[in-house]
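Page 42, continued from yesterday. The earlier attempt failed because a stray header line got pasted into the input along with the sequence. Redoing it now with the clean sequence only.
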Amino acid sequence: MSTFVISMVFIHRQRQAQNRIKLDHIQSEHEKTLLNIENEIQQETLTHIGRELHDNIGQLLSLAKLNFGSSKPEKNEEGKLILNQVIQEVRGLSKTLNLDWVESISINEFIEQQLQRIQNTGFCETKMEANFQLVDLSKDQKLVLIRVIQESLNNVIKHASPDKILIRMHENENGKGRQIWIKDNGKGFDSSQKSSGSGMYNLRKRMETIGGEFELTTIVGKGTEITLTLPN
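This time it went through. Structure tokens are written below.
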């Protein structure tokens, strides 16, 4: 009898040790995922800032210089207005140099900004529909969701060639089952191909780290729809 008890205690301790190892592995993977996402978002932010400095602020400064070079008083006043605009633009960019903005923006606002940025380039028409405001996520959950949405939209821009992108945020009436749908009417693709499968796998794993789900349906020639099921 004593041998049986000792064996059970030994087995129990073994299982506890295995569970601790699994939990440590899960925590390590979660932290690694968050670190990768922070680095990716910062890199994307720096790329955006570089474009803004070159395409927007650089042009505004050149225009201000032309106005200040004129002998007409009204041109000097116009130059001052342009410089004030440049100051506001630079202040806006400086706020994006770290990830503090993640805590100050809602997912709804972030999606609207991303879609407006795409439409402003003339790439395609964009539209957002939402029946709820997503404001109760932790910073870590928001970071992951922001990056998954960014990467999904980047894939559309790189590969889909759509006329329209629609993002719909839907919450069931009982307050459960919140989802974000990202849909385009572009080329679609064969989701069984390895070249596309690895990217989708990474997005799926990232959603799982925050207790969510990632699903993709696509038809060649008819577009792609991504469904992000949010954590409860």
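Notes: Strands lie at 125-130, 164-170, 179-184, 213-219, 223-229.
Reminder to self: strip header lines before submitting.
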